Amino acid sequence: MNLRPLAALGIVALCASLAAPSAPVSAAGDTILFGSAVSLTGSLTKEGHLTQEGYEFWKTYTNAHGGIKVGGKTYKVDIKYYDDESKPATAASLAERLIDQDHVNFILGPYGSGTAFTVAQMVERKKIPMVEGNGAAEKIFSQGFKYTFAVLSPAKRYLEGVLDIGKHQKPAAQTVAITAASDSFSQEVAQGAAEWAAAHGIKVVYNNKYPETATDVSSIISALKATNPDIILNAGHLNDAVLVHKALKEQNVLAKMYGYSVGPDTPDFTNSLGKDANDVLGGAQWSDAVKYHGDPGFYSSAKDYAKAFEGAYHHRPDYHNAESTAACLAFQYAIQAAGSLDPEKVRDALAKLDKTTFFGILKFDSRGINVYKPMVVNQIQNGRLVTVYPPGLAEAKVKYPAPPWGQR
Amino acid sequence: MSVASTGAVLRKIGLGGITGNRTALLISLGLMALLLFVPLALPGYQTLFRTTLVFVALAYAWNMIGGYTGYVSFGNMVFFGLGTYCAALLSARGIDNLVADIALAVVVNAAFAAIIGFPVLRLKGHYFGIATLGTALAVTDIVGNLDVFGGTGGLAVKQVDEAHFAIYYYAAWLVAAGAIAITFFVARSKVGYAFVAIRENEDAAAVLGISATKYKILAWAISAAIAGAAGAVYARGNGFIDPSIAFAEDFNVYPIVMTLLGGTGTVAGPFVGALILSAVNETLGHTFLKLHSLFFGAVIVLVVLLLPRGLVWLIGLRGGVRTWVKSLQGYKA
Amino acid sequence: MHLLAQDLVNGILAGGILAVVALGFSLVWGIMNIINLAHGAFVMLGAYVTWQLFTSFHLDPFLSLPISFVVLFVLGYLIQRFIINWVARAPVLTTFLLTFGLSLLVVNIALLIWTGDTRGVTTAYSGSNFTIGGITVPWAKLYTLIAALVITGVMYVWLHRSKTGRAIRATSMDIGAAQLAGVRVAQIYSIVFGLGAGLAGVAGTLVSLSYSLNPAMGQPFLIKGFVVCVLGGLGSVEGALVGGLTYGIVESFASQLDFSIGSQHISGAGLQDAVALVVLLVVLIFRPTGIMGRATA
C-alpha cells in the first residue's frame, strides 16, 4: 500500500482542522456572554483556577437571583473560557477569538500582569471593554488604554502597609531591606516599597533582586544580614518567598518584621513552612475581615461572601477569588447604569463607576485602575491569617517584634 | 569547485537530492497560498495564524544551521529576541516602518551570529549546543537587567490601527515565504552542498576544499537573519515586548520540534512540521480544556516513535507499510 | 572578607545539589548520547516521593533517599526499555524530541495526581545551623553536601570496579567492541537510563529540603544541569561534581556584585545566569570538552 497519497491527505486534513472553529457561541437573545482566557495550565495554574472560581461564583449567584436587568429585559449571564496556558501571547490570541469568532459581549480579564497587558492591547483595538481583577502592574495603565479597567489596587501599594505598621511602632522601625524577584510585577512592588520608605523616613539599607528561577538565595541573604535591618521585605512569588524565608532562618537573620508580597495569604505558605510561617506579614487586596457594606445586588459583607463561597468551593476564599468576583460586579453595575449592552455605553459607565461592595470601593481613576481601595495587611498568627491593617478594618493587633526563630 | 563536481562526489558517498520531496513541497506551497486568505476568511484566527507563520520562519531558520549544516543550536531564540528588540527600540525612537524593522533585525542578527560564531562554531556537537543555549540565556539576562531595553518591564511597540492591522499578518507571511525561498535556493546551490558536506563529514569536506569556518558562519548568519526578521514582525504584531516574551522558551524549542517533525534538511519539512504541530495544539486545546498539555506530550511521543525520520520522508517513501515498519528497526537499540 | 568566606561556603553547599542533579543527566548524555529533557521532571518526582512519604508516614527525607532512588530507577528502566530503546540509535535530536514529549507527560500526570498546589518539606531540623569562625552553616545543607559527595563517590567506584559498571563504560567507548565482548546493549541502556532517573530522584529528595514543590519545579534544575554537565565534562562523574561546585561558587560570588552606573543598577544576583554562562564559555574555549572532560567527543 503506497503511503504517499495517504500521508499527503493526512497533512492537508490536519491543517484544515487548524481552521475549523469550534461551534461558535454567540450571545443568544437573552444571555450576556462574557469571555475569559485564564491560565488553567502552566505556571499560573493555581491562580488561574482561583480566578475562574471567582467568576463562576458570581455567575451562579446572578443567574439564581434574576440575572441582570437591562432596559426592562432580564438577561442571564454566561462565561466562555479558554486556557491561555499562562502565556501572554496565547491569551491575546484567545481574546481575539472570543471577540471575533465567539462574539462575546465583554471580556473578563486573565490572571497575571503579563497576560492582562496583552489582552488589554487586544481589547483596545477591538473596542470591547474588559474588567480584570488580577493584573496590577503599572504598564497596563500607563499606555492610555480606554477599554481596560482593574478593580484591584496598583502593584506599588502592596507592601506600603507593612512599612506603615513599622513606622507606628514604639520605637519605630528605622531600616528596611528589600529583596525582589526579577519579574516586572515584583520589581514594581519593590520600587513602591522603596519609594514609600524613602518618603517616610525609613532607610533602605539593602535592595537587590534575584532571578525568578533562582534555586539558592543564601548569598543574597548573607549580604542582607550584614546590614542588620529592622524590616525585611520580599517581593516575589510563593516559590521564592518560601526560599527566602528558609534561607533567613538558616542564616540566623533576625528582623523585627517580615513582610512578603505573595505568600502569607496562600495556605500553601503556611503548609510549607509550618511554625516558621508565624508572624509573617503579607500585603493583600482583600481579606474576609474587612468591614465594607456592599450595595444591593450581591452579598453585602465580606463575611457573608466568604461563608457562601466556602460552602460552594470548600475552601476559604482568598483575595484572588474576591477580586475576580469584584470584576464581575463592576460589569454588573456598569451594565445596569448604562441600561444597554452597547460596548461604548458600558465602557463609559465603567469609567464613572462608584460603588461599594464586599470587596471595597469599585472606582477607577482616569487611567483605569482602582486607586481608591486601600490594601490590607494580614499576619499569620498561630497558623491563622488575621487582618492587622488598616486600623479601621483590623481584627487583631499586629504581633511585633517577631520572636526569634524556634520560638514561633 | 563547481556544483557539478561537488554533486558528483556527494552522490558517490551516497547523498542524493537535498531539497527533499517534491510532493511535500507542492503541498506546502499550496497551503501557503491558502494562508493568504486568513485575514478575510477567518478574522478571529488572525493572531493564531500570524504566530504560526512566525514559527514557520523560525523553523526554517533553525533548519539552516541545525538541519542542513548539522550544527544543532539550542539558542536560536536569541536572534528572534534581538529582532523583537530591534523593532521595539526603533518604535521607541519614533521610527514605525516595517521595512526598517526587518532591515535592522537582519543586519544586527547576521552580524551578531558572525561575531559569536567565531568562537562558538569551533565547538562540536553537544558543546556547540550548550554554548548556544548559554549565549541565549546570558543575553536574556543582560537585556532584562538593562534599563535601555526597558528591563523586565519591557517596551511597548507602536502599532497601526485596527483597520490596517492585517499588514502585520502579511508581513509575517512574507518573512515565512522568504524563508522557504531562501532555503530552496540555498539547498540547490553550491552553498547548500557545502552545508551538507560539513554536516556529513566536516573533515572530508575540508579535504575537498570547502572552508568549514566560512560556510558555518554563513549558515548561522542566514539562520540568524531569518529569525531576526521573524522577531521584528512579531514585535509589531504583538505590540509589547519584554524579556519573558522575546526570549520565551517556546521560540527555542518549538522550531526544533517542528523541523524534526517535518523532516530536517528538507525544504518542505519545517513548514509541514510547523503547521501540523500548530494544528494538533489547537485541536487538543479545543477538545481538552485542561488536559491538552498531557495529550500534546503523548502525541509527540507517538510521532517520534512512529515517524522518527519526519513526515516529509514518509511522503517520499516508496514501498508502503512494510518498508516503513522495517525502517523503524534501524534506530532500535 | 568574612562575607566572601561565607559566600564560598554557601556556594559549595549549593553546588552539592547541582552536582547530584547533573550527575544522572551527564551519565545518560555522555554514555548513550541521549539528552533527557525529562530529567527535570524526574527530579520533581523524586521530590514528590519524599514529600508523600514525609506527609503520610512522617519519614525523614534523608531516610527516603533509597526509596526515591529505587522508584525512579524502576520508572527510568521501564521507560528506556519500552519506549526510548525503539529510537536509541537515532540521532541525538530524535531522542531530544522524544524526551521533550515524555517530560510533558510526566509533568502533567504529576499535576493530575498532586494538583498545582505548592508543597514543602519542613523538618524539625529545618533551618537549624551552627556557626564556626563567624560563618553560618545550615545543618540540612551540610548533610546534603555530604550525601552528594557520598553518592558521587559510590557511583565512581561502581562504574570503575563493578562488572556492570565496566560494561557501561565499554559501551560508551565502542558499542561494536562491547557487543562482541558479549554486552547486551539494550539491557545496558535500560540500566543506565534507570540510573540516571534514580539519581534524579535522589537529587529531588535533597532539593525538597529547601525548595518548594510543584509539578513545574524541575525546570530551573534542568537548565542548570545542562550547564553543569558541560562545564564539568560530559559522562564524567568527577566532572559533574567539579562542575556543580564550580557553578555554585560562581553564582554565589556573583550575587555580591551590587553597584550602579549612573541610574542603571547592576545586580550580580540578577545577572547570575549571565555570569555563570560567561564562565562556561570561557572554560569551553580553553578546555572544549569541559573541566574534567576526556578528548573523545
List strands and helices in order, with pairings.
The complex is a heterotrimer of chains A (408), B (333) and C (297).
Chain A (H helix, E strand, L loop, with lengths): L2 H17 L11 E8 L6 H20 L3 E3 L2 E11 L4 H13 L5 E3 L4 H14 L3 E3 L15 E3 L9 H8 L7 E7 L2 H16 L3 E8 L7 H9 L4 E5 L2 H13 L6 E4 L6 H7 L6 E5 L17 H12 L5 H20 L4 H9 L3 E3 L2 E3 L13 E6 L2 E6 L19
Parallel strand pairs in A: 1-3, 1-4, 4-5, 5-6, 7-8, 7-9, 9-10, 10-11
Antiparallel strand pairs in A: 2-3, 11-14, 12-13, 14-15
Chain B lengths: L2 H10 L9 H14 L2 H4 L4 H23 L8 H16 L5 H23 L4 H21 L9 E2 L9 H22 L2 H11 L1 H6 L4 H27 L1 E2 L1 H4 L2 H14 L6 H19 L4 H15 L4 H5 L5 H9 L4
Antiparallel strand pairs in B: 1-2
Helix pairs in contact in B: 1-9, 4-8, 4-11, 4-13, 4-14, 5-6, 5-7, 5-11, 6-11, 8-11, 9-11, 13-14, 14-15
Chain C lengths: L1 H31 L6 H19 L7 H18 L9 H23 L14 E4 L2 E4 H23 L1 H11 L1 H6 L4 H23 L10 H15 L4 H18 L3 E4 L2 E4 L4 H15 L11
Antiparallel strand pairs in C: 1-2, 3-4
Helix pairs in contact in C: 1-5, 1-8, 1-9, 1-10, 2-3, 2-4, 2-8, 2-9, 3-8, 5-6, 6-8, 9-10, 10-11
Short description:
The complex is a heterotrimer of chains A (408), B (333) and C (297). By secondary structure, chain A is an alpha/beta fold. Chain A is 39% helix and 19% strand.
What keyword list fits this structure?
heterotrimer, A: 408 residues, alpha/beta, Rossmann fold, seven-stranded mixed β-sheet, six-stranded mixed β-sheet, 12 helices, 39% helix, globular, C: 297 residues, mainly alpha, two-stranded antiparallel ribbon, two-stranded antiparallel sheet, 11 helices, 5% strand
